[in-house]
Amino acid sequence: MSALHQYKSAETQAPQPWPRNVDRAPVFSIGQVVSELKSEYPAITLSKVRFLEEQGLVSPARTGAGYRKYSRADIERLRFVLSAQRDSFTPLKVIGDQLRALDAGHEIQPTPRARVVASQGQVVLPNNARSISARDLADLSGVGVDTLERFVKLGLIAPDLGGYFPARAVQIVSVLLRLEDSGFDIRLLRSVRTGAERSADIIAQTISSQSSRLRSGDAERAIARMSEAGELLADLHREFLRVSLSQLHPHGV
User: Fold this and answer.
1) pLDDT, tens digit, for every residue of 236-245?
2) Which domain holds residue 22?
3) Omega cis (within 30) before 19
4) Are 133 and 166 in contact (CB under 8 A)?
5) Rounded to whole angstroms, what are the CA distances from 156 to 122, 213, 230?
6) Which of 51, 127, 140, 219 is the most buried (most CB within 10 A)?
7) Are residues 89 and 114 in contact, defined by beta-carbon separation less than 8 angstroms?
């Protein structure tokens, strides 16, 4: 047997990466991939797909010009990752281990979802996390994942590249639900989030310009000042709103 024949024989016998028996022809652009997955995972973006590639969770082919090309198998692999993030509190490292196990032909056990704990009638974030999965956010706020996906589409909440939401999104979703129940068209509330982000930028610019004069050990002081400034701007916003409403109502607010 020639060396070339031995190489081809070994290549034929090598296990195919998961998922198996799915078309591996690289024919989809990254934009087409995002468009296909968007209805199931509204938070998916071009940046998120590139991020998952950087993490080694999907490996698209490249054209001669360097453009990414994805196969149907690549899309199913992305769907596995996105579902694991959305439906369970699964870190990307664990998802990567699961995919490597599947690639090797092993079966995997579903990762247990982080439990929501109740304390004196109040929900407690898993491990006091600073970020939570979509499923935990749904549990903590008492809504369905479809409602969260609607809020994401409207730009009212947004996950990070890892698919997790800031813990305070629980309070945000709760307020959004109350406003919607009161008759508000929440599609109009995107400007409220934009205003908050602009205020945060003002605070960050102000504190960072002053921090250059602080000692290197004063990072905690800078953080405290940012929090205090945030409360002051929130007070200012409330007073501006009261003035504006009083101008609409002759008897004041």
Assistant:
1) 988 998 999 8
2) 13-103
3) yes
4) no
5) 24, 36, 19
6) 140
7) yes
